[in-house]
Design brief:
- InterPro entries: NT_sf, Polymerase_NTP_transf_dom.
- Pfam families: NTP_transf_2.
- It comes from [Mycobacterium] vasticus.
- This is Nucleotidyltransferase domain-containing protein.
- The protein has two domains: 80 residues, Orthogonal Bundle (Arc Repressor Mutant, subunit A); 121 residues, Beta Polymerase, domain 2, CATH 3.30.460.
- The chain starts with 13 loop residues before the first helix and ends with a helix.
- The chain has ten helices and seven strands.
- It is an alpha+beta fold.
- It has a four-stranded mixed β-sheet, with helices on both faces.
């Protein structure tokens, strides 16, 4: 799946992208505003989709001056599943956090990085996850948990999981690596303390510069 285009899991059409915009905001949008958000599609295409959704009753249209504004009809029977689909990215991250929290020896630090956060995923993209094994965590149990998590991620999303696992010592030695730098800048923390992670890698990275 593409986490930034959750409706593509069920429909490849523009309808899903328009619904995603409306379902993730409480405010109303004009055709032009939606078009600017979805700049890969034509404004006429957006207008036709909105007309179909209004006819189905799932979107409401209100005249504002010389234009119409559109909003998801949250009373519609389909609104709840639409909002659930629109929130798949948050659901995925919550499931990841919950899974890590249940480990007998949780990671000292965990973060998602890469295309899953940058909005550049394709159906063939890996989901990149960075884990730091805590001291005292048995290697066999840790490996089992990591392998099981990778399988769960694929089951949840259909994408392969690329899980990078470091010990605390390995993390410090890898402080200057580009991947670690990317996590420092844009990684999304799932477990542990981001401040702890930065304290481990930034002093070492500066020494290597």
């Amino acid at each position: 799946m593409e986490l930034h285009r959750p409706f593509a899991t069920v429909t490849p059409t523009l309808d899903g992208d328009v619904l995603a915009v409306l379902a993730t905001h409480d405010s109303a949008f004009t055709t032009g505003q939606i078009h600017r958000i979805l700049d890969r599609f034509s404004e006429e295409g957006v207008r036709k989709v909105l007309a179909r959704l209004v006819a189905q009753g799932v979107v409401t249209a209100n005249r504002v001056a010389n234009a119409f504004s559109y909003q998801l009809n949250r009373d519609h029977l389909a609104a709840e599943p639409i909002m659930a689909l629109a929130g798949l990215s948050n659901t995925f991250l919550s499931k990841l956090e919950g899974e890590l929290d249940q480990w007998d020896h949780p990671p000292k630090f965990a973060a998602v990085f890469g295309s899953a956060l940058h909005g550049t995923m394709t159906v063939h993209s890996d989901i990149d996850l960075f884990l730091v094994q805590d001291r005292g965590s048995p290697d066999a149990a840790w490996t089992h948990h990591v392998d099981e998590l990778a399988a769960r991620i694929t089951g949840w999303t259909g994408n392969d999981a690329r899980i990078i696992s470091y010990t605390i010592g390995e993390l410090r030695r890898a402080a200057a690596e580009p991947m670690v730098g990317e996590i420092c800048v844009s990684g999304l923390t799932l477990a542990g303390s981001r401040a702890w992670f930065l304290n481990q890698v930034r002093p070492m990275a500066k020494k290597r510069d």
